[in-house]
Design goal:
By secondary structure, the chain is an alpha+beta fold. Among the domains are: 163 residues, no CATH class; 227 residues, q2cbj1_9rhob like domain (Jelly Rolls, Sandwich), CATH 2.60.120.620. Helix content is 43%, strand content 13%. The protein contains 20 helices and 17 strands. Strands 3-4-5-14-10-17-8-7-6 form a nine-stranded antiparallel beta sheet, covered by helices on one side. A four-stranded antiparallel beta sheet has the order 9-15-12-13, with helices on one face. Strand 12 and strand 13 form a beta hairpin. The longest helix has 21 residues.
Length: 574
């Protein structure tokens, strides 16, 4: 049985309600529930074996696969994106195929319905939405971290832990087919190629021995036929497409895909030219394919494009602070300035490991699939998960929960500490946002401020802009998951307890374009962060708004006001 490192996580688990979205595709927090479902499913299937000895061979193979996944997860955890896909597939596509097999036999109908009912009752059981999310996560990770489909399928990627699972022919075909249905043709072709290379000797046109029984003539023919369509539709190579479709028919004469595609290939050009033009202009847009296309973002996520960051690392201002607090005296917080414009700081050891662990524990039950807006209301001292935006998009894949600053002793301490460290007034700050990103979890490049420097912003809106962001890393991340500032060529790697702080606005109140940032996909591990967005409301004397964009243009009077506010803040904290 394959052994995986501790904390292996199945792809991002989401929690917008069951009837709308799949549950296992945007964070890691509820993975234990999925594993429990898998264990219970094993028990039910074992009972069925006792009732139907004649079907034991097919059924036992499924159980072995399911048991292996759940037992390894229980013992070693889950951290590999391919494992995430396997967990989604084994309880969705594989289980559906097994149920279809049962229903062909009258005596199996009752048990099949029992299994369906059991899966439906589970709050976090994967479904087809989760399977699609897992495939998208794999594709996103391939692009960002330059991992080939073959490396993932063979468990040989140098970017991942050394002990990696190997994906079966059926697994690879499922990934290829899902990508094909989404019209991600280039990525789909890579996975189809793995299928036919594993299953056939193409030179002799024969199927290779396959003890698992997955290399059927039908699977190989479909892989070749759909690959032929990609050659025709994307590469516009009709000759190669026809030859490959004919090869598919050599394995299965009645393959419907191959027959339909050959008919298409011989259709006169005038009959489909308009559709082809429309396809090249619209269907290949990034909006339809939510895998990020910014090469600079990808290279920063790999740590390849932050040369300026490395050159200036030794020159960064660095100091320690303790504020006369006992726990900070024992372990002072080290402050590093990453950038002066925009102003970006790292606070090392901002939170103690016991605090970060406790924050995760209290927040897990409140997690819901992340949207890209803020909560609509406060609710006493209770955590809320109510949003003013219902749209869940692939811009961000995570789970979030929101807490009032006075929710409990820990949240009050965090809020007070942020105030001490930044000097900013927290009375108008947004709720604390807890976010959990699983394998492939990410947040595409964005600004935290709302106005984007738009001079047409209403004065009332400007008063409540997001002047600053404070983000705490609650866990280490084994691979990936960095925060990158694209326009500054800065990569910040997650480290448990560290916090990143930056100003989103120029001193004149307009948005700072240099704060464009993103959360890189989590390649291996489990990423938890705590975000606080601080508003301009209450900062009038602390960080006065100037007529010009930044501090070099301050008037002497403004400098005096700023200094007085600093002294008042010091006296208040003394």
């Amino acid at each position: 049985m394959t052994q995986w490192p501790a904390l292996f996580v199945p792809i991002i688990i989401s929690t917008i309600w069951r009837q709308c979205y799949g549950e296992v595709f945007s964070s890691t927090a509820h993975m234990q529930s999925v594993i429990s479902t898998e264990i219970e499913m094993v028990k039910q299937l074992e009972e069925y074996i006792a009732l139907q000895e004649a079907k034991v061979d097919k059924l036992a193979k499924y159980i072995d696969k399911l048991s292996a996944l759940s037992e390894d997860a229980e013992k070693h955890g889950i951290l590999h994106p391919a494992v995430a896909f396997l967990h989604s597939k084994v309880l969705s596509r594989d289980l559906d195929e097994l149920i279809e097999y049962y229903t062909k036999h009258r005596e199996a109908e009752q048990k099949a319905e029992s299994i369906r009912a059991f899966r439906k009752k589970q709050p976090f059981a994967p479904d087809e939405n989760d399977l699609r999310g897992a495939v998208i996560a794999l594709t996103r990770l391939q692009r960002t971290y330059k991992i080939t489909a073959k490396e993932l399928a063979d468990g040989s990627s140098p970017a991942l832990p050394t002990d990696q699972p190997k994906m079966s022919v059926s697994d690879c075909y499922t990934v290829a087919n899902e990508l094909f249905k989404q019209e991600w043709y280039d990525q789909s072709y890579e996975w189809f190629e793995i299928v036919w290379n594993r299953c056939t000797n193409r030179a002799s046109g024969i199927l290779l021995p396959d003890p698992d029984g997955e290399c059927t003539a039908s699977v190989v023919a479909s892989a070749l036929a759909k690959s032929s369509y990609i050659l025709y539709h994307v590469d516009m190579n009709t000759t190669a497409a026809v030859l490959q479709a004919a090869e598919a028919l050599a394995y299965e004469e009645s393959n419907r895909d191959a027959l339909d595609y050959i008919k298409l290939y011989y259709t006169p050009l005038s009959d489909y030219h308009e559709d082809l033009v429309n396809w090249t202009q619209s269907d290949q847009s990034d909006a339809k394919h939510p895998v990020h296309r910014d090469d600079r973002f990808d290279s920063l996520c790999r740590g390849e494009d932050n040369d300026r960051d490395h050159r200036t690392k030794q020159k960064r201002p660095c100091y320690q602070i303790s504020f006369d607090k006992p726990f900070l005296k024992a372990q002072p917080v080290r402050v590093e300035q990453l950038s002066a414009d925009p102003y970006i700081l790292i606070y090392r050891n901002f939170m103690h490991p016991k605090e970060t662990d406790h924050m995760i524990r209290i927040g897990t039950e409140f997690l819901a699939r992340a949207v890209v807006q803020r909560p609509t209301h406060l609710n006493g001292s209770q955590a809320v998960t109510d949003y003013d935006m219902d749209q869940v998009t692939f811009t961000r894949t995570a789970k979030t929960a929101w807490f009032n600053h006075d929710y409990n002793e820990l949240t009050r301490a965090i809020s007070a500490r942020i105030h001490q460290f930044t000097g900013l007034d927290m009375s108008g700050a947004e709720q604390l946002q807890l976010a959990n990103y699983g394998i492939g979890g990410h947040y595409y490049p964005h600004y935290d401020y709302f106005g984007h420097g738009d001079p047409r912003m209403e004065p009332k809106e400007l008063e409540k802009e997001r002047i600053a962001t404070f983000m705490v890393y609650l866990t280490d991340v084994q691979a990936g998951g960095a925060t990158v500032f694209i326009n500054q060529n800065i990569t910040v790697w997650p480290r448990k307890g560290d916090a990143v702080f930056w100003y989103n606005l120029h001193r004149d109140g307009k948005g700072h374009k240099g704060t464009l940032h993103a959360g890189c996909p989590v390649l291996a591990g489990n990423k938890w962060v705590l975000n606080v967005w601080i508003r301009t409301e209450g900062q009038e004397l602390i960080r006065p708004c100037l007529m010009q964009p930044d501090s070099p243009t301050e008037t002497q009077a403004t400098k005096i006001v700023t200094r007085i506010s600093e002294i008042l803040m010091y006296l208040k904290n003394a």
